[in-house]
Specification:
Radius of gyration: 18 Å
Strand content: 15-25%
CATH architecture: 3-Layer(aba) Sandwich
CATH superfamily: Vaccinia Virus protein VP39
Number of strands: 9
CATH topology: Rossmann fold
Shape: elongated
Mean pLDDT: 92
Order of helices and strands: HHHEEHEEHEHHHHEEHHHHEE
Number of helices: 13
C-alpha cells in the first residue's frame, strides 16, 4: 500500500489508457456486466458500459482517479471485502506483481468471480529488454522476484493467453513502452511512472541513464538497435490471461 503512495505521485500523467490494449481487455470480459477491477490504480483499463467496482490499496492512486472513474474501495487483493461470487468477472491489470502474496490474491479473484481476466507479463522477456540488458541490469533481480505470466496462467488454469505487443507509439508508459523512443528514459517523470525503475537503487538507475545519454549522443544506441526502428510493435512479454 505504501509503495504506490510513494512512487505513484504523478502516475496518471504518464500512464494513460491505450485503446489498443483496452479493446482486448474488454473483449476478454465477455458478457460479464458486473466487474471487480482489482489493483485498479487510476482506473486506466476500467471497461466502459459495465457495472464496475474498483479495489485499490494506495490512497495516492485513489486521489488521482478521474471523477468519472468507477466507485473505489481501499483494500488489498489478498483480502477482498466482497462475498463469494459477488461479481461476474474479476479484472487485474498489471498489478499481480505488486501483491505481497500473489497466489492468495488470485485465489480471491476466483472466489469473488467465476471469470478472471489478468494482464501480466513474462518476467524473462522483460529482462531481455535492451534497457535492462545493457543499461540497468539491476532491474533483472527485481523482475525475477515477481510472478511471471506463465506462473499466473498455470495457477488460474487459464483457458486462453493472448500476447499483447507494445506499439511503438504506445500511450501507456509501462516500463518497456519506449522501446523505440529511448530518449524518453532520460526524463525523470517517465522513470518515476515505471515501477521497475522507481524500485531500483537510484544510483544504479543514474549510472544506466548516464550511459544511455552518452550512447544516444554518440549514435551508438541507434547503430546497435537500428532494427527496432523499423518495427511497428514489439513483444515485451505482456499476456492477457483469461480463466
Amino acid at each position: 500500500m505504501a509503495r504506490y503512495d510513494e512512487i505513484g505521485v504523478g502516475y496518471a500523467r504518464g500512464r494513460r489508457t491505450d485503446p489498443r490494449w483496452l479493446a482486448p481487455v474488454v473483449s476478454a470480459l465477455g458478457s460479464a456486466v458486473s466487474v471487480l477491477d482489482v489493483g485498479s490504480g487510476t482506473g486506466s483499463y476500467e471497461p466502459p458500459g459495465r457495472e464496475v467496482v474498483a479495489v485499490e490499496p494506495s490512497a495516492e492512486m485513489i486521489r488521482q482517479r478521474a471523477g468519472e472513474a468507477a466507485p473505489v474501495v481501499q483494500a488489498i487483493a489478498e483480502a477482498l471485502p466482497f462475498g463469494t461470487a459477488a461479481f461476474e468477472a474479476a479484472l487485474a491489470v498489471l498489478t499481480v506483481h505488486h501483491w505481497a502474496d500473489w497466489r492468495r490474491g488470485l485465489a480471491e479473484l476466483r472466489r469473488v468471480a467465476a471469470r478472471q481476466v489478468v494482464l501480466a507479463y513474462n518476467t524473462a522477456l522483460h529482462n531481455e529488454f535492451w534497457l535492462v540488458r545493457e543499461y540497468v541490469p539491476e532491474v533483472a533481480s527485481l523482475e525475477r522476484s515477481r510472478p511471471s505470466a506463465p506462473e499466473i496462467a498455470e495457477f488460474l488454469g487459464a483457458v486462453s493467453v493472448l500476447p499483447l505487443p507494445v506499439p511503438w507509439d504506445f500511450t501507456d508508459g509501462v516500463f518497456p513502452a519506449y522501446w523505440r523512443r529511448p530518449h524518453a528514459y532520460l526524463d525523470p517523470a517517465v522513470r518515476q511512472s515505471c515501477s521497475a525503475l522507481a524500485q531500483t537503487a537510484p544510483a544504479a538507475v543514474a549510472r544506466g541513464v548516464a550511459r544511455l545519454q552518452a550512447d544516444l549522443d554518440s549514435g551508438r544506441w541507434r547503430e546497435e538497435h537500428a532494427e527496432l526502428l523499423e518495427l511497428p510493435e514489439w513483444d515485451a512479454g505482456f499476456r492477457l490471461i483469461v480463466a
